[in-house]
Every structure is written in C-alpha cells, then in structure tokens.
Amino acid sequence: MSEGAVRVLIVDDQVLMRGGLRKLLEIEEGLVVAGEAASGPAALEFVAANAVDVALVDARMPRMDGPELVARLVEEHPGVGALILTTFDDDEYIFGGLRAGARGYLLKDTPPEELVAAIHRVARGETVLGPQAADRLVAALRGGVRVEPEAEPAAGAPSGPLSEREWEVAQLVGAGTTNRDIARRLFITEGTVKNHISSILRKLDLRDRTQLAVWVGRRPR
Which of 38, 74, 87, 190 qualifies as a cystine partner to 101, CB 3.0-4.6 A? Predict the structure, then answer.
C-alpha cells in the first residue's frame, strides 16, 4: 500500500459492479481498494475491523439501503467519508443520502477521472455533487421544497437503546404517522421504516406499533 493512499471500500450488491470498480480504482495512483462489501451490514462489519477512508456506497441495496448505511457510518465511524455512487437520481435517495451525511452523490455514468477526483475530494472532507444531484437540489431550493423533514413537537434526545434515527421514527409512530408518510418525511424507503420499527420493538421489548405509540406518549416532552 502506498503511504498516504486513500483507502476505499466498495459497497454494492452487484458482483460485476464491484469487480469493475475495483479494476478501475486499483490502477489509480494514490488509491487503494481496502475491500468490498455486498450489503450495508457487511460494510459496517468490514469498517469496524479495517482502516477505510472513503466508502463508495450504492443507493439501493437489500437489507439496508444507501442512506441508512451512510447514517450508520456517520454515527459509528465518522472518519469514513461516504460517497454515494448509484444509477438512481430520484429525490428520495439524493436528499436522503445528503441528509444522512453523505459527502457526495454521483451517478454510475460518471467518467472515471471524475470519480477518482471525487474520491480524493471526499477523503479531504469536501462535498461532491454530480450535475443531476446538484440540479435537483437547486430546483428544490428554488421551489421552496423542504430538504429537511418537518420538526415534530416531541423533542428531546433519544435515550436508552434507541439511535437518533430510531427515536425520530418512534416519535412519528407515536404521532400516528403511516409508514409511507414517515418514509417521505425522513427521505428513506418504506422498507427502511419497517426495519427501524422492527428494531425499535425488539430493543424495547414491545409487541406492536400500538404499544410503541403508548411508550412514546409516556416519554417526557
């Protein structure tokens, strides 16, 4: 490994995409492919045991989507810069990824030299947006669209075993918000919402969302 080289983790559920990115990056001076992961949980396990500077993250993956993985990386491994590299340019993933803490958002048709430059910029702590993501962000701001979700009246830091995101989801469940509306407010997928609720119920030893709503209602505001 070259001294001072940027260590990159490739996170994508497609074998061919991981292999192609590895071949592309391995020939670049100043970059080293630290490893590959086919899912979010596998990526978290790898980062916990290995040195990584930048994680190239696909937006849509089974078990844990890109924005959720980015949020976990920011929370658990803040030294790893997350760069989303995907084929999807819809608002849910762009705004969700950036809100989660991604330092960049590029599409997979980005020229190789631009991708390499973006990785180095993310490693330096800079933010990189591809033209599609930048256009969406500018259009949203000009149109008065909220990039951040609306604040809920139930405030306060999460306590006990819940993460900050799980606490947000729990508050919305307590307010009677549907999974679809929770997904829209937090810019995540409905599948991710269901996963969060399942995790919350397990951590709090609750049976269903009704019990969760009661639990939230008893929390201090």
Answer: 74
The answer to whether 192 touches 179, Cβ cutoff 8 Å, is: no
Alpha-carbon distances of 203 from 94, 100, 159, 194, rounded to whole Å: 30, 22, 12, 14
Residue (of 96, 75, 78, 94) closest to 86 by Cα position: 94
Cβ contact 168:199 at 8 Å = no
pTM for this structure?
A: 0.65
Element (H, E) at 11: strand 6-11
Q: How many CB atoms lie within 10 A of CB 106?
A: 23
Q: Is the distance from CB of 219 to CB of 154 less than 8 angstroms?
A: yes
> Strand runs (DSSP E) across 53-168, as ranges?
54-57, 81-86, 104-107, 128-129
- DSSP-assigned letters across all residues of 127-159: -EE-HHHHHHHHHHHHTT--SSPPPPS--S---
| From 48-52, 153-157, 199-203, the region with the lowest mean pLDDT | 153-157
Check if the beta carbon of residue 174 is closer than 8 Å to that of residue 212.
yes
Judged against a pLDDT cut of 80, whether residue 68 lies above it is answered with: yes
The whole-angstrom separation of Cα 157 and Cα 51 is 30
